[in-house]
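step: validate -> pass
step: tokenize input -> pass
step: predict -> running
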Amino acid sequence: MDEAGLAQFSALLEDSTEDLYDNAPCGYLSTLMDGRIAKINTTLLDWLGYPRGLLVGRKRFSDLLTVGGRLYHETHFAPLLAMQGQVSGIALELKAADGARLPVLVTSQVKTGTDGQPLLIRTTIFDARDRRAYENELLRARKEAEQAHAEAEAARQIADAERSRLRQVLAVLQRSLLPPSLPRVPGAQAAAYYHTASADELGGDFYDLFALGGGRWGFFLGDVCGKGPEAASVTSLVRFTLHAACLHAPDPASALDLLNTVLYERYTGEDPRYCTVVAGTVTPRDSTFDVTLASGGHPPALVLRADGTAEQIHTPGGMLVGVMPRPHFTSATTTLHPGETLLLYTDGLTEARTKAGPRYSEDDLHAFAQSLAPAEAGQVVTALTGLLESFGDGLEDDTALLALGLPAAHTESDST
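step: predict -> pass
step: emit ->
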């Protein structure tokens, strides 16, 4: 720095004490012990808009405060200052000459004489308008966040309530697609179970068991492609059509032919609908039941034999129902002896993901059924229900189970 610069810098340092006090970047105020203003700097006068003569010797510091500020000054600020001799960083509001409010931070200290007696109070006042604006902005942002959270919570509660109502409606609709209970089949046992993979969607699985007359019984179990209302509509059509077809057709294969005709004619064009299904009849023969099955692209039925084995009943040539105008359905027959159970299921079971990773297969189910055999219908469905629960989230599709069998002892048993 050259000599001129040093001289200018030295001049700056030689500001008078009075100038430093009067034009400080903060307000200075000296009051007597009764609060009357004895001295006030220009900075504070400019903030408030008062002439010096109107304040010095005429007003008290508390006169410059708002009503709330005066109350706080009298009840907290002044007593604390008298007790401690100093109070720092108190937020107050001053009232300017034009009525405007000036947020400030106040620090006061009692000056004492050599004998320790208080002489006057020195007060430093900092402009807190920017800080107050910042705090107000924080409060506004907080209120907006709280409001947004409250609105989001209210929206979530409404959505949960709507979802609950929708689930109730879907549950009612789903039940309407299934028989309310299985009928009692003389000399046999029957059990069924329906697992819903998602409470938010209608599934397309279905089953039924009903009397055909003359001691004969009909049954079917199947799965309509897709989910939702459209699939439910098809499921309703399939169930009632197939029920009527089984009552009038001479055999299960003929009943599937009739169902195929209805589906193919009803759902043609850009939105074809089809299903897989296995239908059958049961005819009592002394201590046994003759079973006739026909399948349209459905997984094979299983028979748990009395000797501890499990047998798949294949129906070769079975095609998806509703895809072709003239499909070929064939029948297969078997006989149920005492202690043997026929099991029908949908592919939600054999396509579930296991905890180990791979999907549960028909071979896995065959081995599981063989480990149960011999077992009655209720025991089979109970064991499979536990198996389905063990899959957890791996069970991605609805699953229907229908079991029909003869008890080991030759006694008539109620359906379950």
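step: describe -> Residues 129-176 form the longest helix (48 residues).
step: cleanup -> pass
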